């Protein structure tokens, strides 16, 4: 069993390594270094690092935990992701590079006007605050359960310390530091998954072929849902939802695109995106396989799903098995390193992208004298850190579902306006009445909230899934058609 003191030493040692990277990459850093890494990042580093940032602590913990309820059906969504990455690479990236953007929402300013720009930035801001908070919350409850509860440290302190550590190593070099730390974090995360699979396979006397082909494991490895279209996770709904989740949560998200925009050229960024998408599919499949083996191991060894506030929490089964499941000290150490690597590879870039977007899209940083710009950026960075602390703490009292399912559901509401705005700008020649765009967005969100809360009984048994996201984008698109101007763009 891995003692809390040893876990804390591991975490502090890991952060010491991150601080060393931050020191080396933050030398002579200015605002352009913080925001764009001076557009000098090698594509292969960005591609590899983005794997960890995309998967994050949510995938590391929540995807294996989800297997107990839904088997491998999440892989249907992942195949949709893969299609979405090609659309991002060959439709969106050329636009961003052609306009030499720092914040991708500047496109909406150029295309439609001030209000559309603000809506894009606000949509991202809400989406990323919630998304980053989901991820940080998951890591914080693991640290709380296995370290700080035994010392009587409140959850709020755990959250605060986690974000302070992230702020420390990102506050100088920004995205340049993150490109390099993400590479290290992805390596640790993948090593953790591979070695844990190896140890579980030995303990269960199982290999990949057995677990995928033998009928007795079908409950955990069932992948395709094609019989009942009314089901929430039907293949077609999952696949289409996955496509649009990728377009929105990667292609229309400053956090993920900020890394791509640090590449030296459009071609390098496109290669990065395609390579990254292929690696991501393989890695996600390994996480699903890991989840099946964790549940089988827990059954064999009578390990109960840990409770949180008196309720079984499948997100906590992986850490329970790794740390207290009798697999040995090495597996516990591997798990902790993989967890913090996965978690902070997404949290640090989220903090940096929120700072970037707020400075560029809201504060219009370039309008200030050079002497003030750096101070404003640092103050904003602190403010974003405090905001994340508050939201993560709130999640403890309101979140009652599997974290990754909750994350993707929230995305359906918050990314829809971005999807509609960018699609209208790219695929139509029309200009719009920019002052009226707020009305369209608010009505679209209200309609989606109403639709999303309809019971299956009301819809004749139809269960709404991730198709809410493209539906939200479509409603926004149609609303923009109603406020279009007769004069078209050239």
Keywords:
490 residues, mainly alpha, two-stranded antiparallel sheet, 4 strands
Q: What is the count of DSSP helices, taking H or I runs of 4+ residues?
A: 20
Shape: globular
Strand content: under 5%
Main sheet properties: 2 strands, antiparallel
Annotation, overall tally of beta strands: 4
How widely separated are the two ends?
67 Å
Helix content: over 70%
Secondary-structure content class:
mainly alpha
How confident overall, as mean pLDDT? 85
Stretches with pLDDT under 50, minimum 5 residues: none
Rg computed from alpha carbons, rounded to a whole number of angstroms? 22 Å
Describe the strand arrangement of the main beta sheet, using strand numbers.
Answer: 1-2
What's the SSE pattern? HHHHHHHHHHHHHEEHHHHHEHHE
What's the layout of helices and strands?
Elements: H1 4-25, H2 31-36, H3 43-70, H4 74-98, H5 106-111, H6 114-146, H7 155-170, H8 175-204, H9 208-213, H10 218-221, H11 235-251, H12 254-260, H13 266-300, E1 307-308, E2 311-312, H14 317-324, H15 329-362, H16 370-398, H17 403-414, H18 416-427, E3 430-432, H19 437-452, H20 468-482, E4 484-488
Antiparallel strand pairs: 1-2, 3-4
Helix pairs in contact: 1-7, 1-8, 1-15, 3-6, 3-8, 3-13, 3-15, 4-11, 4-13, 6-7, 6-15, 6-16, 6-17, 7-15, 7-16, 8-13, 8-15, 12-15, 14-15, 15-16, 17-20, 18-20, 19-20
């Amino acid at each position: 069993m891995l003692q809390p003191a040893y876990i804390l030493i591991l975490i502090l040692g890991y952060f010491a390594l991150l601080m060393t990277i931050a020191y080396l990459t933050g030398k002579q850093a200015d605002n352009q270094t913080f925001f764009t890494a001076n557009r000098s990042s090698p594509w292969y580093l960005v591609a590899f690092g983005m794997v960890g940032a995309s998967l994050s602590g949510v995938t590391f913990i929540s995807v294996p935990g989800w297997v107990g309820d839904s088997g491998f059906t999440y892989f249907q969504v992942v195949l949709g992701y893969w299609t979405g990455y090609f659309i991002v690479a060959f439709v969106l990236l050329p636009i961003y590079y052609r306009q030499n953007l720092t914040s991708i929402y500047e496109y909406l300013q150029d295309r439609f006007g001030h209000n559309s720009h603000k809506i894009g930035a606000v949509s991202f801001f809400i989406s990323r605050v919630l998304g980053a908070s989901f991820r940080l919350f998951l890591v914080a409850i693991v640290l709380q359960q296995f370290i700080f509860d035994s010392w009587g440290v409140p959850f709020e302190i755990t959250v605060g310390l986690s974000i302070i550590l992230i702020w420390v190593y990102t506050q100088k070099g920004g995205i340049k530091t993150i490109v390099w730390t993400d590479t290290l974090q992805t390596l640790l995360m993948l090593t953790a998954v591979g070695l844990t699979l190896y140890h579980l396979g030995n303990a269960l006397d199982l290999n990949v072929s057995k677990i995928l082909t033998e009928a007795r494991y079908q409950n955990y490895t069932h992948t395709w849902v094609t019989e009942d279209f009314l089901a929430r996770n039907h293949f077609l709904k999952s696949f289409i939802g996955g496509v649009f989740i990728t377009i929105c949560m990667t292609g229309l998200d400053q956090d993920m695109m900020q890394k791509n925009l640090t590449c030296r050229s459009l071609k390098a960024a496109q290669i990065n995106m395609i390579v990254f998408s292929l690696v991501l599919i393989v890695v996600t499949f390994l996480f699903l396989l890991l989840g099946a083996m964790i549940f089988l191991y827990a059954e064999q060894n009578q390990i109960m799903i840990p409770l949180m506030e008196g309720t079984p929490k499948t997100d906590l089964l992986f850490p329970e098995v790794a740390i207290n499941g009798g697999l040995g000290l090495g597996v516990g150490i591997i798990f902790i390193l993989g967890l913090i690597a996965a978690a902070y590879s997404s949290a640090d870039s989220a903090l940096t992208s929120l700072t970037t977007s707020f400075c560029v899209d809201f504060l219009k940083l370039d309008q200030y004298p050079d002497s003030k710009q750096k101070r404003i950026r640092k103050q904003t960075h602190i403010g974003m850190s405090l905001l994340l602390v508050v939201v993560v703490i709130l999640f403890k009292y309101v979140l009652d579902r599997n974290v990754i399912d909750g994350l993707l559901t929230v995305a359906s509401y918050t990314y829809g306006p971005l999807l509609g705005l960018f699609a209208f700008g790219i695929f139509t020649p029309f200009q719009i009445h920019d002052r009226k765009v707020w009305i369209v967005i608010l009505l679209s969100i209200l309609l989606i909230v109403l639709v999303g809360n309809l019971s299956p009984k009301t819809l004749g048994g139809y269960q709404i899934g991730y198709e809410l996201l493209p539906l939200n984008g479509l409603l926004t698109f149609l609303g923009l058609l109603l406020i279009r101007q007769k004069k078209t763009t050239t």
